[in-house]
Design brief:
- With 201 residues, the chain is of the alpha+beta class.
- It has 2 domains: 93 residues, Ribosomal protein S4/S9, N-terminal domain (Ribosomal Protein S4 Delta 41, Chain A, domain 1), CATH 1.10.1050; 88 residues, Roll (Structural Genomics Hypothetical 15.5 Kd Protein In mrcA-pckA Intergenic Region, Chain A), CATH 3.10.290.10.
- The chain is 41% helix and 8% strand.
- The chain contains 8 helices and 5 strands.
- It has a 5-stranded antiparallel beta sheet with strand order 2-1-3-5-4.
- Strand 1 and strand 2 form a beta hairpin.
- Helix 2 crosses helix 8.
- GO terms for molecular function: rRNA binding; structural constituent of ribosome.
């Protein structure tokens, strides 16, 4: 299944607040569709599927990409769910979003694809690049790049910058000082249910 490009508000109504997907808010409290207002107790499978879909839509991943990241997380020692979240949070597109350089993760992905972002003084157009401690991220020294990012910075998606990132607003330079901790993940999610969903596959 490819990346979702349909109506984003519909997804946020169904799955709850997804800060990385969209900043739009709906005035309606129930999910979209003719069955949205029916209150039924969801099955265990439905709960696991919903948590998995939250992860997919918030970070803008395809099913194959998410499965690949889960396989990587399982090979690392520690809690698989927390490691999975760390892998997704340390992606370049998400790091740019968390710095407030873009309003959403799709907007951050576009900045990377169009060559506005430098990592260790090299233009990098790979959104899934895993940021490592010691990496220096900055904006291309061009008027178009700087003016676009400064416009985005007036309306950041999330207010708090995680403690593993050191950001200099004057020259738009960031240093990655470590790996993100679980409490700094902005998405309200039970990651264990995601791992359980894939363990039955």
């Amino acid at each position: 299944m490819s990346r979702y490009i349909g109506p984003k508000l519909k997804i946020s109504r169904r799955l709850g607040d997804l800060p990385g997907l969209t900043r739009k808010k709906s005035h309606k409290t129930f999910p979209a569709g003719e069955h949205g207002q029916q209150s039924r107790k969801p099955s265990e499978y439905a709960l696991r599927l919903e948590e998995k879909q939250k992860l997919r839509f918030n970070y803008g991943l395809s099913e194959r990409q998410l499965l690949k990241n889960i396989k990587i997380a399982k090979k690392v020692q520690g809690s698989t769910g927390v490691i999975l979240l760390q892998i997704l949070e340390m992606r370049l597109d998400n790091t740019i979003f968390r710095l407030g350089l873009s309003p959403t993760i799709p907007a951050a992905r576009q900045l990377v694809n169009h060559g506005h972002i430098l990592v260790n003084n090299n233009i990098l157009s790979i959104c899934s690049y895993q940021c490592k401690p010691g990496d220096v991220i900055n904006v291309k020294n061009k008027t178009a790049s700087i003016s676009l990012i400064k416009k985005y910075m007036n309306f950041p998606g999330l207010i708090n910058i995680p403690n593993h990132l050191e950001f200099n607003k004057d020259n738009l330079t960031t240093k990655v000082n470590g790996i993100i901790e679980r409490e700094w993940v902005a998405l309200q999610l039970n990651e264990l249910l995601v791992i359980e969903y894939y363990s039955r596959k």
